[in-house]
Amino acid sequence: MNEFELIRTCFASQPVSRPDVRVGIGDDAAVFRVPGGMETAITSDVLVAGVHFFADADPVSIGHKSLAVNLSDLAAMGAEPAWFLLDLTMPSVDVPWVQRFAEGAFGVARRFNVQLIGGDMSRGPLAIGITAIGLVPEGGAILRSDARPGDQIYVTGDLGDAALSLMQHRGELKLSVAESAAITDRLARPMPRVDESLALRGIASSAIDLSDGLLADLGHVLEASAVGARLELARVPLSSVYRARLAEIGWEGAIANGDDYELCFTVPPERIPDLERMAAERRFVITRIGEITEDRELDVRDPAGKPYRPRALGHDHFAPA
Amino acid sequence: MNEFELIRTCFASQPVSRPDVRVGIGDDAAVFRVPGGMETAITSDVLVAGVHFFADADPVSIGHKSLAVNLSDLAAMGAEPAWFLLDLTMPSVDVPWVQRFAEGAFGVARRFNVQLIGGDMSRGPLAIGITAIGLVPEGGAILRSDARPGDQIYVTGDLGDAALSLMQHRGELKLSVAESAAITDRLARPMPRVDESLALRGIASSAIDLSDGLLADLGHVLEASAVGARLELARVPLSSVYRARLAEIGWEGAIANGDDYELCFTVPPERIPDLERMAAERRFVITRIGEITEDRELDVRDPAGKPYRPRALGHDHFAPA
Question: Where is the PurM-like N-terminal domain (chains A, B) (predicted)?
């Protein structure tokens, strides 16, 4: 089976067909229409076997996560996802694997109405490259650079369960079957905060998604905005599974590990009533964890109010394994 | 050095800065503006060390080719390139390599006014993924599916020199220093036919770029358009280097090997005067090589007018090495 037949077999019957796609899969490039008043947001990420996922992991999860992490980047801009391209390299054609991979990616695509419009397949070490494209109102993208002193810092959901799941995979942590079931999808199948992101347009002053860990990612916002922050560890939202292990494993999993794919965003004081109303109406789980400050440093306080010195500052993609 | 510093060092001072880029490198996603009346064309390709290029090849050439092959895909749609994303995976941080890679990519970017707006860097086997984005007038993309019986088939430039260069690399062919110098860039640093492509808007009925070989790529056009073609080998344009070796190596290098990155396009009879005028004015090298037919087959004729049976039908990305 050659690559063209493989593409047809596994990706032909995708779940989403958008009217704004002029040319989809099958030509030299895809062509789409951007409505007036909108700008185009675009991001790409590569997931490499043995680096970003276990080579023997469930292909459905790999497909899910590959698309989800890119939609998470769009969510961090307040962009509504619309289209994606998939570049798949693999050592040899493995149709059942690709079919299950497609099942995972298309599950996320269906959920967020995102259409696969192109890409490339090639022989090589197992790796997945996805480019996700979305729409954002003209001038309305939520940037890293617009946090201001006095803005309140929030995160969506709970932090740290992806780290728990990774520790379990590595044999560093024993979880009960129930605990394991409660958190396993947080690492393997994160769900990007697209709906929250769109509701934050006009409310959030800045945003980033938590892929490298709260301290590192918030650090990017502080650097881009030329501000600092005070972060209260006691406010960081943890799942009941994590909280039960907190004394044993410490805060690092929640603040210095990647892969949570929650949003961290800042809100000016005058927009907080809008935020609270919106979150209540939409039943979004958000938690205030600190405040933007003028001093250009990240002041992390432990539950006793004392300065907390983190052990690690996040994920470096080129650090030794 | 971590990935963020590497990105800053090697990609910070890029040569192109476009006014339509709202958010460039450094946020979760890039944001650009599409002018009214235009649609967006997008394509991505991955180049894997040991598969698409020799791992020890000159990084300037690898950078050049990585961007060039993607711009070639946009050219095949009649799209004007504007922006690109770069995903680079490498086993460890090699700053001199990345700097030279960037030099090659930015040389092509400068030539075609294309701005790097994002991407990703990660640890993994050496591979380059590029997503190129361009603009095409509403409804004006040149597709593979619009060739009609009676349309004349053309190609730009000469075909086969990339194959000669590859044969030389493999030790299958000895070339003189002068011959080698004349063709070496055709494999290592192909130049996408962007200018030709834009001039073909409104003239060409269909187009494809020659990445897999003329027979295979023309075959894609015939399949998408539900037509056939008669191809005259005697008309296929060859460089003087290739022509001097023709008796020795045969036609395959020119018609069944990839990597030429010329355009193959079709033109309805009534547009041929426009084509000839444009090509003469712009000094574009184009050659008529055959005609689209109703019968859904590819009828290749040798210089004696007899049916020619090709030995291979192009490049299969999953064929054994």
Answer: 26-136
